[in-house]
């Protein structure tokens, strides 16, 4: 079915998520998971904030190297806390909750269809590695560390966003979609085909407002020439980097959203995603400048650029759009499925 169109690629996408939320108004600190406990003054996970549909659905998650079984009602608040600023408008948080739930249901569906998770998952359907699945923290344990005096307020916001959308998913042809998301796109989101090579009907490029509100919307990475050559030649030994630096990058292909699909570097054609990963760039939407002893990548946007833009969701929520409208803005031709 088209709704499961990413079967071959879903466990191989290196930048499928934004990762731990290290930007904007309420950054997530580094974390370690620990035995379950409830921080003083916070709302326990099972005190009514877990809706009946999310409570009824269980999933296995690899957390800090250990497989744990939990309900979606327990899992999703930890994803939101790690992935999106809790200060964002409620409708943006609800949209994120539905996207995260849908992605989990998508992975569960893949498992039901016989698609085994990678060996690194140790048999779990999901993991807390944002390069694989979604980041996750134990919200009740880490809220004070994340948000200080606002810990209780933000914990309630996140848990309410999950409960208010209890059981709601995004579907395409009656199947849960691969509801990928990222922090901030440029003026448009990316087509999945331009980033991962897989044409997906609901992951098309759309106009996306508000990305420039992200503090990482515009960024630079400067690399010494010697380091660039060492890293690049290690991965692409056939590249010829003896000529002038000004001749290294040629014939780039850009998507309609501006991201580099691929570019010729030293005579070798390389995917923009590979360059992003190799040099730790914020996005594939980059230009290159150089000095005698260094190369600088100038990036626009933060994340892979496909699907829901979190800062776009924020902007649309501030315009008065609700979470269903936000989701349908970013995922084309989908249905918002609510439990009966």
Give the helices and strands, then pairings.
Layout: H1 52-56, E1 58-63, E2 66-71, H2 72-83, H3 90-112, E3 126-127, H4 139-147, H5 151-164, E4 169-172, E5 175-176, E6 181-182, H6 192-196, E7 218-224, H7 225-235, E8 249-254, E9 260-265, E10 268-271, H8 272-279, E11 286-290, E12 294-300, E13 308-309, H9 310-318, H10 323-330, E14 335-337
Parallel strand pairs: 1-3, 6-13
Antiparallel strand pairs: 1-2, 4-5, 4-14, 7-12, 8-9, 9-10, 11-12
The largest pleated sheet is described as: 3 strands, mixed
Shape: globular
Q: Unreliable segments (pLDDT under 50, ≥5 consecutive)? A: 1-48
Proportion in β-strands: 15-25%
| Alpha-beta content class | alpha+beta
Sequence of secondary-structure elements: HEEHHEHHEEEHEHEEEHEEEHHE
Q: Output the radius of gyration.
A: 20 Å
How many β-strand runs?
14
Number of structurally distinct domains: 2
> What is the terminal-to-terminal distance?
23 Å
Number of helices, where a helix is a run of at least 4 consecutive DSSP H or I residues: 10
Percent helix: 25-40%
Mean pLDDT: 86
Strand order, biggest sheet? 2-1-3
Textual characterization of the structure:
By secondary structure, this protein is an alpha+beta fold. It has two domains: 2-212 and 304-337, no CATH class; 218-300, no CATH class. 31% of the residues lie in helices and 18% in strands. The strands form five sheets. The chain has a three-stranded mixed β-sheet with strand order 2-1-3. It has a three-stranded antiparallel β-sheet with strand order 5-4-14. Residues 1-48 have low confidence and may be disordered.
